[in-house]
Amino acid sequence: MPGQLLELTGWKLTLPAGQQGKPQEIVEPELSSFTNDFFRLNDGRDGVVFTANAGGVTTPGSSYPRSELREMNGQEKASWSNTAGTHIMRVREAVTRLPVVKPHVVAAQIHDAEDDVIEVRLEGEHLVVEYNDGDDGATLDPAYVLGTPYDLEIAAADGHIRVSYNGTQKADIVKSGAGWYFKAGSYIQSNPSRGDAPDAEGQVVIYALDVQHTP
Length: 215
Description:
Number of helices: 1
Shape: globular
Distance between the termini: 33 Å
Mean pLDDT: 96
Order of helices and strands: HEEEEEEEEEEEEEEEE
Strand content: over 45%
Helix content: under 10%
Number of domains: 1
Structural class: mainly beta
CATH topology: Jelly Rolls
């Protein structure tokens, strides 16, 4: 089961299924043994496949569907600030599928109570970390090949967010805030109104995922 491969005690899963505006959510302890078409082991049984379809159910705050983990603190939603302590997410993952018309998918985020703080997203072949509502960004890989695993580290501390890709720091973003939390998975950035078919998919495989918070 996916939960036996990844340590999921600190996460909640949101799926592109359920009722519009109220997508299905899976929490611990159910999450450790849960699997379906949107959240399953890959054929090699060494990664968890997150799949979101363009016509799927969305959260109230977004028009795009997701199969995505949200950081938790026990049964409570995680919430922290990069002005105190050090907060690091390390993930080994690969983007394996993109929708055809608008080939964009978000594979990792820092989010706050209102909006994304940063997004790691693939736009065609351009893998980028974006911030300030997409007005600013830094290239992680200008020619990413679908299915290629990469190691991502997002470290938030001292009013900075530093993003490393395959061991090399690619961005040092000066930004402070509170109410932050990590997310990882497949957050497709298209829907039928963008021209994609309802069954068009964004897909991400996560091989390893770890979050550390230190005072």
